[in-house]
């Protein structure tokens, strides 16, 4: 197209029967002026967004774009585009810099929260703008742009932005506003579950024929407000622990900006921030032994008001596209942190970061979460331990988890060719689920477990054989080749593997994490970590339709993991593994169950009073969610009914006995009511009243021979023995709870059985005597407790060593300090029934 006198013009027409009626005339662009030489002066960039989070996210994206600017003119173009090529939104800020590198650094400071963001104030009159802002056409020196920046950060909305662009600046490509990624469409909600019965009422069995389904939930991640900074006390110390020197440096600076005193050793810190290295794919199964020991040590050393902030990467899938990158070991260790802190009543927070975010941005995000922690406010005895703050950041945007209803998965016909494999199938849950699979049409079920079939279980399987083929093979799920061999043998007989239900698992007795060696914890984690990896791999390799991992709410609720941190860790691994492994060919689902009332392990017993499900109801929900995919949580609701119709609660009595004040309704025993010894400072319920000890398992009864308190004259408070014992009591409280209760009533401290077990153990270690745990429940104050201990306990030297079985449930108690055996009920000087119930627990832990 040859150039003539005038500009070249063209036209495009479109007219159609459908109503198109358009004629467009195009004219060639004017010749671009030659832009040579350096662009003088500083540059200013405005960042605006619908909210603060959007401004910070946009600043992060701008920073990346400025990094890619090739020369000063492109930098000027980028500033021009940001300032005049974007509509102003409600929130704004501005930065200044001499070149692209300075601007990128300043923008990252915005992204990291170090630069204030203002709500644009439309109230500033437009006519004031020329005086406020840099005058149009004036040289764009540092003073001018600095003024503009100050005005923008103060909320002035009317700035003549075009006047700040050098002549010749052009619009260019620049990231646009980030999407808020928030869903606003109507989501299907499962029918609301029937209102849970009052906590004291027995669990109502679902009426025959009703379609009552337990609540099922999934976790989704929503964009969330930046955390609100709390007051960081002047002397608050924090220790960042990371193997990345650049992050440590940036984090130290960011924490100092927030007013924290950064210290080099965790032992001196009120808050410890442990940042997991992003790293590549971890070994599977992961070796968590070092993590376990370090966590136990950290939590033990943390002061009572302290916080453990754990930072990981890829522990959660904030967006669906991230699922394949989820690291189950990160999810598992994060859960262990939360459970361990809940157990020892310390604060925890878990933050999942985007390794793609620059180091400074991540450092700012961690510092912002740190600043929002409840500094210096220990949870204190008697208050519910916190479950831990959870947050995630992706591309500068903060997210928080939210539970939404999980509708049942696609229906699945269990009839047909092939077979189902149930691991741990001789266990209580496994047996119930096999029966339920057969009830719903499964024709062939292969069962594996490590034990040999006993008479009872083989009778149960034979009973099912009338309706389906059921066969058992002995196999340890931790051994991948043994599991594959079992599948090969079942397959040779029945053909295709259609689905795997992984029920193998075990639980350790309740106990504090810092006294549980990894060699014990691994017995719980192995079948759930290695076993789950093997089960899922087998299902996928054989093209099975589904794999279900039978998991627990201890893997998703920190409080449910108290005393069971290993179990919590293992179940969290299963839940995250299902999120990662779920695919189109083989659906992988992990079910987080509460306690199944009336069946199986007592793993969730600590939580069962408030969180349990009837076993039949749970088995129905299992089938509904056979192919839901990912992690499905069943929080449960019904209170636990008595097992087998007996009055024995499913929660081990020693772990659930509520505090019974010394002056409870129990009738006084003969010899009661002795006055306190002269010299005591006042009447103490412990010393002046006889309190028959009640049998925890049978309320209202008094075990034969139960000793009455108060018959022993109390030593004078303040005597030498008392002073020593009071010192032991103080030490024990400080060791376990982080503080001495002083004159406060012990019953107001809300001690639960785990804490009592710990206190008892420490008292025994310090005092070298057997301590009756029930004294802790009946003493008025720490002083009373010291007096009672002086009066009540006898020194142990010369006492025969405890039989091994009494010291340790497995009898392998070599190596631990010697402890006297618990006194046998009925013997003179016997401890209470409660004490007898608690003793196996204490004895188990003592040898650690
Ligand atoms: N019962 C509940 O209320 C409840 C609540 C929430 C979650 N769960 C979960 O449900 C699952 C089953 O619990 P349950 O109550 O049925 O417990 P259970 O009665 O103790 O059964 C567990 C079974 O796992 C088997 N097992 C353990 N380690 C194994 C290994 N390495 N290889 C093969 N099999 C192994 C055991 O058999 P061998 O020792 O013979 O191998 C046992 O039969 C567990 O994963 C548990 O976390 C149960």
From TrEMBL:
SUPFAM superfamilies for the chain: ACP-like (SSF47336), NAD(P)-binding Rossmann-fold domains (SSF51735)
Residue ranges of the region described as Disordered: 121-141, 190-212, 663-723, 791-832
Entry's Gene Ontology cellular component terms: cytoplasm; plasma membrane
Xref: InterPro entries: ACP-like_sf, KR_dom, NAD(P)-bd_dom_sf, PKS_assoc, PKS_KR, PKS_NRPS_Biosynth_Enz, PKS_PP-bd, PP-bd_ACP
Compositional bias (Basic and acidic residues): 121-131
GO biological process terms, semicolon-separated: antibiotic biosynthetic process; DIM/DIP cell wall layer assembly; fatty acid biosynthetic process
Origin: domain of life: Bacteria
GO molecular function, a single term: phosphopantetheine binding
Keywords: Phosphopantetheine, Phosphoprotein
Low complexity composition bias: residue spans: 132-141, 663-683, 703-720
Phosphoprotein among keywords: yes
Signal sequence range: none
Alphabetical list of Pfam families matching this protein: KAsynt_C_assoc, KR, PP-binding
Gene3D superfamilies per record: 1.10.1240.100, 3.40.47.10, ACP-like (1.10.1200.10), NAD(P)-binding Rossmann-like Domain (3.40.50.720)
Residue ranges occupied by any Ketoreductase domain in the UniProt entry: 418-599
Domain Polyketide synthase-like phosphopantetheine-binding: 722-793
Name of this chain's protein: Polyketide synthase PksL
Source organism of the structure: Streptomyces prasinopilosus
Lineage: Bacteria, Bacillati, Actinomycetota, Actinomycetes, Kitasatosporales
């Amino acid at each position: 197209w040859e150039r003539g006198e005038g500009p070249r013009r063209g036209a495009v027409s479109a007219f159609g029967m459908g109503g198109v009626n358009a004629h467009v005339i195009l004219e060639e662009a004017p010749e671009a002026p030659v832009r040579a030489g350096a662009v003088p002066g500083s540059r200013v960039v405005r960042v605006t967004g619908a909210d603060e989070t959007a401004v910070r996210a946009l600043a992060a994206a701008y920073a990346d774009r400025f990094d890619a600017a090739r020369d000063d003119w492109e930098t000027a173009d980028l500033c021009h585009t940001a300032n005049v090529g974007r509509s102003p939104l409600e929130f704004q800020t501005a930065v200044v810099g001499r070149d692209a590198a300075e601007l990128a650094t300043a923008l990252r400071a915005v992204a990291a929260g170090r630069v204030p963001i203002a709500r644009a104030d439309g109230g500033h009159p437009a006519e004031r703008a020329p005086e406020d802002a840099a005058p149009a056409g004036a040289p764009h020196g540092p003073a001018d742009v600095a003024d503009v920046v100050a005005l923008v950060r103060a909320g002035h909305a009317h700035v003549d932005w075009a006047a700040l662009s050098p002549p010749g600046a052009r619009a260019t490509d620049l990231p646009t506003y980030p999407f808020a990624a928030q869903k606003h469409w109507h989501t299907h909600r499962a029918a609301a579950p029937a209102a849970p019965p009052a906590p004291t009422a027995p669990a109502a069995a679902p009426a025959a024929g009703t379609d009552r389904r337990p609540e099922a939930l999934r976790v989704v991640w929503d964009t969330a407000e930046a955390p609100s900074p709390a007051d960081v006390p002047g002397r608050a110390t924090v220790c960042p622990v990371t193997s990345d020197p650049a992050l440590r440096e940036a984090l130290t600076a960011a924490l100092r900006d927030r007013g924290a005193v950064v210290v080099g050793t965790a032992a001196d810190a009120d808050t410890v921030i442990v940042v997991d290295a992003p790293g590549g794919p971890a070994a599977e199964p992961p070796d968590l032994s070092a993590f376990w020991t370090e966590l136990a040590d950290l939590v033990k050393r943390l002061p009572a008001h302290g916080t453990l902030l754990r930072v990981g990467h890829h522990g959660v899938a904030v967006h669906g596209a991230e699922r394949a990158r989820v690291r189950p070991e990160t999810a598992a260790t994060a859960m262990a942190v939360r459970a361990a802190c809940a157990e020892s009543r310390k604060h925890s927070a878990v933050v999942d970061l985007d390794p793609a975010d620059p180091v400074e941005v991540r450092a700012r995000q961690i510092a912002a979460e740190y600043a929002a922690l409840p500094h210096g406010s220990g949870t204190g005895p008697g208050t519910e331990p916190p479950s831990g703050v959870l947050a995630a950041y992706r591309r500068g945007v903060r997210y928080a988890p939210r539970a939404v209803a999980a509708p049942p998965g696609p229906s699945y016909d269990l009839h047909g060719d092939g077979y189902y494999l149930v691991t741990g199938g001789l266990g209580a849950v496994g047996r119930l689920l096999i029966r339920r699979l057969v009830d719903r049409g499964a024709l062939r079920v292969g069962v594996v477990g490590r034990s040999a079939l006993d008479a009872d279980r083989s009778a149960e399987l034979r009973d099912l054989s009338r309706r389906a083929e059921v066969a058992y093979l002995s196999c340890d799920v931790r051994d991948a080749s043994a599991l594959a061999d079992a599948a090969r043998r079942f397959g040779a007989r029945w053909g295709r593997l259609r689905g795997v239900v992984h029920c193998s698992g075990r639980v350790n007795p309740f106990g504090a994490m810092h006294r549980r060696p990894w060699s014990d914890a691994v017995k719980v984690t192995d079948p759930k970590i290695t076993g789950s990896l093997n089960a899922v791999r087998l299902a996928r390799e054989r093209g099975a339709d589904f794999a279900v991992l039978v998991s627990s709410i201890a893997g998703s609720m920190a409080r449910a993991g108290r005393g069971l941190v290993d179990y919590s860790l293992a179940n969290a691994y299963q839940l995250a593994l299902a999120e990662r492994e779920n695919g189109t060919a083989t659906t992988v689902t992990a079910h987080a169950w509460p306690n199944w009332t009336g069946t199986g392990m007592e793993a969730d017993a600590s939580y069962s009073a408030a969180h349990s499900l009837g076993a039949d109801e749970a088995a129905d929900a299992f089938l509904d969610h056979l192919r839901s995919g990912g992690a499905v949580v069943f929080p449960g609701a019904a209170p636990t009914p008595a097992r087998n119709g007996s009055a024995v609660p499913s929660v081990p009595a020693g772990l659930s006995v509520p505090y019974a004040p010394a002056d409870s309704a129990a009738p006084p025993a003969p010899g009661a009511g002795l006055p306190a010894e002269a010299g005591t400072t006042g009447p103490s319920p412990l010393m002046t009243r006889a309190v028959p000890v009640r049998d925890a398992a049978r309320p209202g009864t008094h075990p034969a021979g139960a000793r009455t308190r108060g018959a022993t004259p109390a030593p004078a408070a303040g005597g030498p023995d008392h002073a020593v014992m009071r010192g032991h009591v103080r030490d024990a409280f400080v060791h376990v709870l982080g503080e001495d209760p002083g004159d406060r009533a012990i019953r107001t401290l809300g001690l639960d059985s785990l804490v009592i077990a710990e206190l008892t153990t420490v008292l025994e270690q310090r005092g070298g005597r057997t301590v009756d745990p029930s004294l802790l429940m009946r003493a008025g104050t720490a002083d009373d407790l010291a007096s009672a201990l002086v009066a009540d306990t006898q020194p142990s030297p010369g006492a025969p060593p405890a039989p091994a079985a009494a010291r340790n449930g497995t009898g392998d108690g070599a190596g631990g300090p010697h402890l006297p055996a618990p006194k046998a009920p009925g013997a003179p000087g016997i401890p209470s029934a409660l004490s007898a119930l608690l003793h196996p627990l204490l004895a188990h832990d003592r040898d650690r």
